[in-house]
Specification:
This protein is 31% helix and 17% strand. The chain has 191 residues and is α/β, with parallel strands linked by helices.
Length: 191
């Protein structure tokens, strides 16, 4: 579920640039059921997308309806939440059973995730840990031990290497894990 309701871009990564059915179409008195807004990608992933254009009537609290309408049908529902702890992000945290933080290894992103971590704990949610994304050998980024120290010892579950294939993957509108399944990034991501 693309939980970034005002800045959603999940569809672009799967070749769905201008979805004809979005979260907006199953809330606010719409006649569509949540199931009717699902896109099935060729790799088997089912997606519920946020609108590409701003929908001023779309309230972040609608995520509760979306998730609850789907909860019994799936073992896992992943919500790609908005960054920070604004209304959209807070709605994602409130409806989540567990929280997995994704961070790049830089101070702004890690400190932003710590706010999300704190809010998740305040809401009584289990925070599983951090997945570090775009990990490279750049000396200006934080090390794993730096991040664990800053994040109050939160466990880093996986480090996903930086990949030069990502820009091409986005241009091709196919996730790297399916477009180039044997790259280091793809292998680590699947683990």
């Amino acid at each position: 579920i693309d939980g970034n309701l005002t800045g959603g871009s999940l569809g672009f990564h799967f070749g769905i640039n201008y979805p004809t059915k979005t979260i907006s179409d199953c809330v606010n008195g719409s006649k569509l059921h949540v199931d009717q807004t699902i896109y099935l990608h060729s790799n088997g992933v089912k997606l519920i997308l946020s609108p590409v254009h701003l929908d001023p009537k779309l309230d972040p609290s609608c995520l509760e309806h979306i998730v609850n309408s789907s909860r019994d049908e799936y073992d896992y529902i992943l919500i790609d939440g908005a960054p920070g702890i604004g209304r959209e992000a807070l709605s994602c945290l409130q409806v989540a059973d567990e929280i997995l933080l994704v961070s790049t290894p830089d101070i702004p992103c890690v400190t932003n995730n710590m706010k999300t971590y704190g809010m998740g704990r305040k809401l009584g949610k289990k925070v599983i840990g951090i997945v570090l994304n775009q990990v490279g050998r750049t000396p200006s980024v934080l090390t794993t031990s730096d991040i664990e120290q800053i994040s109050d010892g939160m466990k880093i579950i996986k480090s996903i290497p930086k990949s030069g294939h990502i820009p091409k993957s986005i241009a091709l509108q196919e996730p790297e894990v399916t477009a180039k399944p044997n790259t280091t990034l793809s292998i680590q991501f699947k683990k």
